[in-house]
Design goal:
Bound molecules: orotidine-5'-monophosphate
Distance between the termini: 18 Å
Radius of gyration: 17 Å
Structural class: alpha/beta
CATH superfamily: Aldolase class I
Helix content: 40-55%
Number of domains: 1
Length: about 240
């Protein structure tokens, strides 16, 4: 039995180097049970036409290319992403306010059916030591909060962060500002390179809107059953 919801919380991260393997999984999935994320690896190998094919199957697609460049370049890049019909696209908040404002302005100009725009705060693979080596003298939670508030001020729709930061962020951000969280690990699954992790249920209980989950589903012996188990564990949150 597949558990479905009209607002699926799980975004399956399709990080495959083989298009047939990805297509095989996609054909088993139901757009009412999950959204899909296409990232740098698959976009670089298989390109925009493949993204359009996945969109045409009825899935909400998060095109995760994490743009980080000068404002003019990023504005044009998000506009190009919108032309593929994707549901969400993202930038790095550390690209700064001018870049984020240019990106949301460019998307708004594409019309009312534009993709959502989110900004990555501090990658979920980073711990305090790694952040210290890039930005000194600030706790991860403070840096995430600073970048999330900046993202909101710039008019974007939400941030990508760790679920570990969600409770504190919900205290300072608008209720409709989206929290999208990778680093989700069901109990018993391998952590891999993720550091700031949470379970699907605890993430949603902390005020997260969407869960980005890759390897715990895509590398499972039975990916569909892994997704169904996750959806069953969070069915209380399905609208
Ligand atoms: O923007 C992202 O999606 C992202 C941001 C972040 O801070 N951490 C992070 O893991 N991601 C992405 O989320 C996915 C997580 O995959 P798994 O670790 O396999 O569940 C990967 O595709 C990452 O590129």
């Amino acid at each position: 039995m597949s558990l479905t919801s009209c607002d699926p919380k799980v975004i399956v991260a399709l990080d495959f180097d083989n298009q047939n393997a990805a297509n095989e999984l996609i054909l088993k999935l139901d757009p009412n049970a999950c959204r899909l994320k296409i990232g740098k690896e698959m976009f670089t190998y298989f390109g925009p036409d493949w993204v359009k094919k996945v969109v045409a199957l009825g899935f909400d697609v998060f095109l995760d290319l994490k743009f980080h460049d000068i404002p003019n370049t990023v504005a044009k890049a998000v506009k190009a992403a919108a032309s593929l019909g994707v549901w969400m696209v993202n930038v790095h908040a550390s690209g700064g306010p001018d870049m984020m404002k240019a990106a949301i302005k460019a998307l708004k100009e594409t019309g009312t059916n534009r993709p959502l725009l989110t900004a990555v705060t501090v990658l979920t693979s980073m711990d305090q030591n790694q952040l210290d080596s890039v930005v000194g003298n600030i706790q991860i939670s403070e840096q995430v909060k600073r970048l999330a508030l900046l993202t909101q001020e710039c008019g974007l729709d939400g941030v990508v962060c760790s679920a570990q930061e969600a409770i504190e962020l919900r205290k300072v951000l608008n209720n409709d500002f989206l929290l999208v969280t990778p680093g989700i690990r069901p109990i018993g699954s391998k952590t891999g390179d993720q550091v700031r992790i949470a379970t699907p249920l605890s993430a949603l209980q902390s005020g997260v809107n969407y869960l980005v989950i890759g390897r715990p589903i895509t590398q499972a012996t039975d990916p569909l059953s892994s997704l169904n188990d996750i959806n069953a564990s969070i069915c209380h949150f399905a609208k």
